[in-house]
Amino acid sequence: MLNAAHLHSSTLNGEWRFQLLKNPEAKISRSWSSINVPGLWTMVQDENGNFPHGDKPIYTNVQMPFDQLPPLVPDENPTGVYERDFEFSDLWRGKRVVLTIGGFESVASLYINGEFVGLAKDSRLHADFDITDFLVDGKNTVRIVVVKWSDATFIEDQDQWWHGGITRSITIHATEKVFIERLYTQTGLLADQKTGTLRIRAFVNSIDGLAIDGWTLRARVTGQNKEVRFEAVVSRAKRPNWTEMTPEQRRASDEFFKGAYWDGKLPEATREAIREIEPAGPGVIEFSGKVAGISPWSAESPKLYEIEFELIDPQGKSLEVITQRIGFRSVQVKGKELLVNGKPIIIYGVNRHDFNKETGRVLTRELMRADLLELKRWNFNAIRTSHYPNDPVFLDLCDELGFYVIGEANIESHAFQDSICDDQKYLNAFVDRVARMVQRDIHHPSVIAWSLGNESGSGLNHHAAASYIRNFDPTRPLHYEGAIRGNWTIGHHLTDLICPMYPEVSAIVDYAKSKRADRPLILCEYSHAMGNSNGTLKEYWDAIHSTPGLQGGFIWEFWDHGIVQNLHGGKKRNAYGGDFGETKHDGNFVCDGLFFPDRSPKPALHEFKALAQPVTFTAPTPATGRVSLFNRNFFT
Question: What is the span of the domain harbouring residue 210?
Answer without folding.
Answer: 178-326
